[in-house]
Amino acid sequence: MTVSIAIVAALTMLGSAPAPPPQEGNQTPLALDVVKRVALDPTTYAPAVVAWGGTRLDWKSSQIFFENGWHEQNPRFTVSGRGNDTPIGYAAGNRKILTDSVWNLRLSLINNVSEQLIEGVLIRRFPTHRRLLRTLGWIERIVAASYWTYQLSADHFRQWQANERRAQQLGYH
Question: What pLDDT band is residue 113 in, cutting at 50, 70 and 90?
Fold first, then answer.
């Protein structure tokens, strides 16, 4: 949705000016430009890395409770697949967290490749508005990365802090 808002805003501001003739030898191929920009863009990696970190802290801080007979509440991390049950092993949890992070990276890649393709096409069509289009692209990518980072990691960071407090209260440390 944020991509479509950026596109509508850009097209509204730019009007329907005719495309200038192509410039010979001055432009890198669009696909190469997109790959380079996506690979160097921190918004591609931030959601996956931060979510991985938060989930790992949550998982690692939960281990002391499992060692003391507590059950896992998250059904994705139990042997039976139901909440309030026996947790899966530590290594299995780490694999699950890594798999989740790869899926999160995939979402960021899809968003950033799509945005960069649209941005590149618009810049080639309206080269005099390059700065505006790049700025709108950055805004879209930052908003999307911020949203996904928060959605994927906030609960895990909160749970990690709660686990640390509870472990200290119970004398587990």
Answer: very high
Residue 16 pLDDT > 70, yes or no? no
24 belongs to a structural domain: no
Give the integer Cα–Cα distance in Å for 117 and 129. 16
- Contact status, residue 129 vs residue 23, Cβ threshold 8 Å: no
Asked if 104 and 152 count as a contact pair (C-beta separation under 8 A), the reply is yes
Q: How many domains does the chain have?
A: 1
Q: What is the CA radius of gyration of the chain?
A: 22
The predicted structure's pLDDT at residue 5? 53
Q: Domain for residue 123, yes or no?
A: yes
Residue 102 lies in a domain: yes
- Any domain includes 81: yes
Task: Kindly report whether the global pTM for this prediction surpasses the value 0.70.
Answer: yes
- Domain residues for 89? 2-12+30-169
Q: How confident is the model at residue 23 (pLDDT cuts 50, 70, 90)?
A: low
